[in-house]
Amino acid sequence: MLEIKNISKKYRDKQALQSLNVTLETGVYALLGPNGAGKSTLMNILTDNLKMTSGAVLWQGRNISKLGKDFRRILGYAPQQQGLYEDMTLGYFLSYLAALKEIPKKEVLAEVERVAQAVNLSEQIHRKLGSFSGGMKQRALIAQALLGNPKLVVLDEPTAGLDPKERIRIRNLVQKLGESATVLVATHVVSDIETIAREVMILKSGNLIAKDTSENLIEQFAPGQGLEEVYLSIFGGEG
Q: Of the CATH numbers 3.40.50.11060, 3.50.50.60, 3.40.50.300, 3.40.640.10, which one belongs to the domain with range 2-81+152-235?
């Protein structure tokens, strides 16, 4: 269980997040909102890459800032930015990150093969990351997030740059992850999460304005339509 307790974040004169209180259990949770809504700030706080101004994040009742390596072992994070080591092969990159996660050496090869297969990159394992397309780099980032079977998975725009076939593959993968882990997916592609999210969280100007099932949100904001229409009814033309 992940508990977000009264989190706020302020950058000088901008309030990026305001008093967020959320509890996430096993399952897939979607995070929606336009650019500047606070999604990236929240994800960076949840992954312990950014300090909050006030509040606390608890994993299984313990503050993540005090868990140290224990938190890193249960966390899988795929950022949207594709800052990869271009001269590394995919296999070396995944092995390197497996070592950082302290996965036992005797298990690394099988683990690297498992996560590469999960994102349909098994045949590219000896290629350098610098030769990958944008979509392949995105899948490599998702693969490294899966190392060690994390119990908390945070994915920032995981289907960005993917073709329709790979988007479906990743959607199915995320749905499977949600059977045994807490998965938070930030996305602009509403259709990717409408049918698989346990609940949808909607951020606007740093405030959580809704957290409910897709069905309930549709009934409240866009009866008889879909989650995309919910988004449009709340944000209009905001990006």
A: 3.40.50.300
